[in-house]
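Before drawing any conclusions, I needed to go through one protein's amino acid sequence and its backbone structure tokens, quoted below without any editing.
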Amino acid sequence: MALRLDSRARRINLVIPKKSSLKKAYEFAESYQDWIETKINELPSPIPFKNNVVLPILGIAHTLRIEKIDLKTTKFEIRNGEFIVKTCLDDPSPRISRYLKSIALQELGKLSHDKATKLNRKLSKFVVRDMKSRWGSCSTDGRMTLSWRLIFAPMEAVDYVISHEVAHLIHPNHGSKFWTLCEKLSDNFTAGHSWMQKNGSNLGRYGETPLL
């Protein structure tokens, strides 16, 4: 049996082997109750999409300004360090997420296609979405998926993740040749890799509501 922290979902998962007793599994989890509470409490606080919060968008800090208007259409503008949202909704969070996903699709997609071109390869499909266990995936036939939440990471980290996935167009494994190519594609491999190792799990807190 094992307890695994899912920092993005902000929970502890209990892994139970086949044919194991559920009663013993629950007793096992209860015996680690203090550890579970400590790990959950150590996670950084969620950052909901509320007025005046600061959001890092593609490496630049922007203050979220939510303005109430009578129009049914929600309007967005990013300028001079501000992310302005004009809306009639009491909670525009879903629309803010959707808008940021559209930016991620455009900007992360452009960088991904550019790096693929450097290898004389093309991406046959590119999508962004929420990913539970990793930040991206890419097959040798050119199908790439990235987490839209990478939009909250600094550019050297974004560049590293994209370089990592694009390298899989050539090498489907994580052997030495893969890492050599990944480093070659990256603008700053060391900084990007290090940032994701230390801070990647924090990206999931943006747009999340604190638990009551």
